Structures are given as C-alpha cells and as structure tokens.
C-alpha cells in the first residue's frame, strides 16, 4: 500500500476514471441549484439527478467527480465515532446508460489494488452483494477472482430513495485487522458489513436498473445507470493508516491549531478529544458552506450553519477557549483544501466576516441563555421542584444553543437534576418535524421515455438571425411522437435550425410565430425550452396543421427579444456595480430576465442603503450613456478564465464558452443574448431592493421601455399627490406635504390632550362609586377611550388611588372590543388573578386574552357582548 496525501488520492481517483473515458466534473456548490428537494448537496449523485431521471442527457455518459457534501442527520455522533462527519467528500464514477456492472466492478478493483494506483492488499478486501444479485456475485468470484468467503450476501444491499432509479448495490470493505475490532470475534455484528471498527466500508457501487414507480412497483429502467461513492476521508484513513479519519492530513492541521489556541494537547486530552474533532469537522463544513453562499439564520440551511457554529463554540468552551476563535481556523481550511477548492481562499475574508459576526452574536446569546436558566432555577425553587424539564432543556438547546450537557452541569451546581429522557423525546419530535417537512422530495423523478428519445439535431442561430426558414424535425403532441398535428392543438416542435432562444441562465425563452411557405400563419410559439438532449423545444399553439419534414418560416417576436436583451445586458452591469459599491463578496444567487423587468438575487448580509442604490444606478446609467460596445467571444473555458470572466450562478460550462464583455468593466461567461451597444439599453432604474432569505437580497429593475413606463407611473402618482395636497406644482409637493404633516402632528397633540382630559374626567366619575360583591369591591364599566394605551393609563390611575379591589374596563372602536382587568394587592393576596378573570369574560366579546395576575387584557369582535362580559365579571367575583 502506497503512502499518499489526501490531495494525491483525490487527483489519482479523477485521473484514473478520466483515463477510462469519464468527464471530470467540478464539485458543485453545497447549496443546491434549482432543486428545492434538497437542503444541501448530500452525495455525489445529488448533482446528477437530472441525468439519472432522464430530464437532461449529458454530453458524456461517463462522469467522475469529487463532490463536497453535507449531512447533519447524525450530528450528535460527530467526534464520538471514527467516521461521522457533517461535511465530507464523495469520490464517484457514474454511467448514464453506458457501462454497467462488469466495468464498474473491474475498475473499482483495479483502482484499489493495482500497483499504479492505490495498491491495497487484495487479501484485505471483502465485498457484500444483494442476495438476489447473482450477476454481481459471479463478476466478483469469476472475473475478479475474489475467494467465495470474501463475497457475502446482504439482504439490505438495495439502493432505493423512493420514486425514480433504484437497484442492488455491492459494497467494498477493507479489513483493518483484528486489533482494530471493537467487538468479540463471535459477536453477530463482527463481519464485513456489520457495525464494527475492523471491516471499514470504503466504496459503494449502485447498479440502477429499476424504475421505482409512483404505485410502488418496479420496472426495468429504459437506461441502466451506475452510481458509485467512496468517502475520501475513509480511504485516506486507510492509506495513511490512522485510527480514525481525524488523524489524517484532512483534519490534523486544524486540530494542531486548536491545540495552539487552547493550550490543550490532543493526544493527552482523553474525553476532550471529541471537542477537537467536532471543532475541526464543523469549521470545515461552515467554511465551505459560507464560501458557497449559505449564511446563518433561524431556518433551513441557515439554521444548520448556526447550529454548527454554536456547537463548535461550545466545544471550544470545554477546552477553556472562552473567546471567539473560529475565524483563526478558516485560513487553515484553505491551506488544506484550497488547491482543489480555490473558493475557500478567494472567499476567505467574507467567510471570516460572517463567522466573526455569528460567533460574537452567540457569545451574547449565551449570556441570555444563562439568564433564562437562572429564571428556570428560580421557578423550580418556588414550586419546590428539583428537576429541569426536558422541554426547558430543549428550549435552551434549540433557542440559545445550550448543549444539554451544559444545562445538566449548571443544574448540578445548583442542586438540580435534568430530565435527559424528556430532552431526548423533544429532540426526536424535532427530527420528526424535519422529516415531515422534507417529505418525499428527496427522490428523483421516474424516467420518461418520450423526451429522452428525442434524437434529432437542432441548431440555434438566434444570436444573429431572428427570422429563418427551417425544416420541422419532430412533433410531440399529448406526450407521443406524431408525424402531423392538426390546427388548434398544443404541441412541442423541434426544427432543424431555429432563431428561438430556449430558456436558460435566467433568460426566458423566446416567443413568436410560424408561417408556411406561402406566408400564412400556422402556429404561435408561446415559449421555448431546452429538451433533455439540448434541442430547442418550441411550445406551440397551432393555427393550421403542421407536418414533419415540411419547411416553415420561424419569426421571433423582435420587440420582445430586444427588451429581454436590454434587461439581460443590464443584469451584467448590475452584477459588477454591486461588487464595486457593496463589496467583492457579492455573488449572484439567481436571476430572471424578462421583457418587462430584470430580477437579480445576490448574497449580502445587510440591506443595501439608498445611497448605495443611487450610486449603483448612476454607474450603470453612465455605462449606458458612454455607449460601450458589447462584444461576444467564443473561446475555451481556460482562455475565458485568463480573461477574468465571471461564471454565472448555476451554469454548467463546456470546453467552449461564450464570453460577454462590456468594455473592461464587465466580463462574464454567458450563453444568453445581448444588445450590441450599452446605449441600446436606454435607461436603467432600480424599483425595489428587498431581502428574500438569510443573507440573500433581491433587486428588481427595469430598462428602456419598462423604465420609462415606471417613471411615467411615478410622475402620475406625484401629479395626483399635488392635486390632493393642493400643491401649485409637482416641484412643490414635498414642501406641501411637510406643511400638512406638521399640521397633522399639531392636531394629534391636541387630540391626545383632549382624550387624556376626557379619560381623567371619566376616571374621576368611574372610580367614585365602586360596587361591593362579597368581600371585594369592583368597578366594571364600558368607557370612551381612543385605544388600549388609554385603558392602561386609566388602570394606572385606579391603582394609584386604590379605587377598588377589582377593575374591569371595556371600549369599542371600529367594530372591535378591547377589555382590561386588574387586581389590587388585597385581591392578589386572596388568590384572585386578572388572567383568570379575563379568560372567563373574553368569550362574551367573541375573543380571547391573557396576562399577568395583576393585569390582563383581551380583544374581541362582538361589541354587543360587552354588557354580558361585565355582568359575567361580577358573577365570577361573587363565586370566587
């Protein structure tokens, strides 16, 4: 067995499969693109779902990758076991309808055992196969020559995540030797495939040969696939002969840095070793996730990030690190991984900024959590109880980031116990909620044969031509291929050449018309999309019959295309202007380019200020008025990178790409259509800026005709405002509005004074004559007041004057009711509570309420029930 670094193993794997004709795909972002079913990219195959379910046909059916992935379903096991991680790299090779079991098995064996590659000892390798997969067993025993005792049947060796491709799998295990076994030799789990530390699973080969249908039946796939996964961290631990994944070169530099910060030695840390491992694991996941555009928040993937950061901080406290420290580890992640993942270096400053803010915030939250825990202790003391409930422990964990161990530790110091079993039940409820929220969305689609069988060629010529004559190649109507389609039907058409742009990269598809050879209208193109094999698919409402093989005149809606192009080119200018004004950390997180407007989503932690928006607008309009040529260059991807071209969010690029350049200001990879000169855009106007998620902002803007219409709409609003405010001209609207505002403020002050005087007069009259019921006095009245605040002011005066033991006040305003109850010290000492009373009378006004023992309030929608509520209050007092 060779001695190799993690980088060498990763490169060697990709090189091996590249030699076998595979295309090396770059690792995709951890944040899924156009896949709402996934919170994170959680496996190598997750980025290729569109190939496996047949919705897109890859250029090369053989693919290999090293894909960064995140899974947090077993987060509590990180650091406790030798192999659990939140972020890991999955080495994989994939076949989309190309080779199958024999090649997959033979190549896996070759890579693992051949002297040119990893050179593992074949005698240390064991495999499991599905009990019914005789084909795989025969390949291992007959082709590979593996001894029968090294090939074990496993009933559970079947990969199935719901609807979509599924099939048997074979797993490869490495025997780490009996000295590493944590179980007795005769234990039922002491075998390759069992839960033990001796036989380590290093590679899983999935043979996708069945379609799992929605009715829960299976049928053979139209195209059989191969999906394999080998955890880089695991194979590195084998090659580097380490007891766990954490002692490899993927983690030890981080652990050494934590040693430096904490002053604690890892090798002698005992149980605290887990804290080193958790910190090293979590900082990798957090660094990569933020570099890929995820940001901490209270929901979704942002919540996962926040949780990882807080867990790392808490484990730092166990190592006596009581200051923010995680940012010191970010450069170490770059040193370990930056050669293959350069964005963890280029985004380092932004990652540090985000983690620093979050870590500082958590230290503040910890203080709040401790204050809450003190309140819990006080409540327990008052009740004479000695145990922190599972719900309280979970609240501290979920809201304040307190590990249950910390709550337990503080509780023990105060003489309390903690309901760990109750806490575990609350945790399980949370997991069930998460599973319910995910539902069945993780599965792929079942393969559809129609579009995947579309094999005709189609060339897009719409960069230069917007009207062409072309032969009709294929017609799909009601999900079947037909040779002819009647008029007044909906159909999908493919032409030999087309000027219609198919939607991608955020730019919507073209629309237009189809004419026959005599110039007669025969169809309307309402949309254009990309078919699985890349053809431009025209969605058409037919007017007259169309026939495969006939030639037709295709005409794009030119005005609509021009408007789209103006918005698209403006999007490029906006992207660069945002980087210049807001910061280089800004990255595109989605876009939509239509004829009416453009929408641009980008990563940023704060609202873009009005001053920044104004500066961005000015920059873009200056570029428009300077009339810069918009040049498109077709070149290699490597040359494009040398030119400094930015890659757009979610795009996959081949070896040959289009580079759109606007002077030296904006250079982007883009397959969309654009204006010839920035002056064609005319005018650029931002209409809204808003937040759409944690750390993601959205700008909506208009250009050209859309911008002018927006300006006209604003002028109309201004003109109407001038008329309403009686301003002499629209230029004097601001002055007039300020004057009216000042008048309004003065009237409000006068109104407040009058209401206050009225309330005082009412209070004087009300509080003079309380009614005695039983041993208590009560004032229960409907009053004239402007809002709940005045009711509370009247209650304050009642309390100051000690006017009665019980107070009930009600007011009606705009068809709604507000009620207030209050108790004197005498009433409280007798056990009366305002909250109990309000709950009795609130239903009478069609509402509900609650509050403290001394004061409570309620709201309702039934003013007619006020008198009944006041009567009920007196009856309640009589019966207490």
From TrEMBL:
GO terms for molecular function: alanine-tRNA ligase activity; aminoacyl-tRNA deacylase activity; ATP binding; catalytic activity, acting on a protein; transferase activity; tRNA binding; zinc ion binding. Its cofactor is Zn(2+). It catalyses: tRNA(Ala) + L-alanine + ATP = L-alanyl-tRNA(Ala) + AMP + diphosphate. Keywords: Aminoacyl-tRNA synthetase, ATP-binding, Coiled coil, Cytoplasm, Ligase, Metal-binding, Nucleotide-binding, Protein biosynthesis, RNA-binding, tRNA-binding, Zinc. It is an enzyme of class 6 (ligase). Zn(2+) binds at residues 568, 572, 670, 674. Residues 4-713 form the Alanyl-transfer RNA synthetases family profile domain. Binds 1 zinc ion per subunit. Pfam families: DHHA1, tRNA-synt_2c, tRNA_SAD. It comes from the Bacteria. The keyword Magnesium does not apply. It is found in: Cytoplasm. One of its GO terms (cellular component) is cytosol. One of its GO terms (biological process) is alanyl-tRNA aminoacylation. Belongs to the class-II aminoacyl-tRNA synthetase family. Consists of three domains; the N-terminal catalytic domain, the editing domain and the C-terminal C-Ala domain. The editing domain removes incorrectly charged amino acids, while the C-Ala domain, along with tRNA(Ala), serves as a bridge to cooperatively bring together the editing and aminoacylation centers thus stimulating deacylation of misacylated tRNAs. NCBIfam families: alaS (TIGR00344). Catalyzes the attachment of alanine to tRNA(Ala) in a two-step reaction: alanine is first activated by ATP to form Ala-AMP and then transferred to the acceptor end of tRNA(Ala). Also edits incorrectly charged Ser-tRNA(Ala) and Gly-tRNA(Ala) via its editing domain. This is Alanine--tRNA ligase.
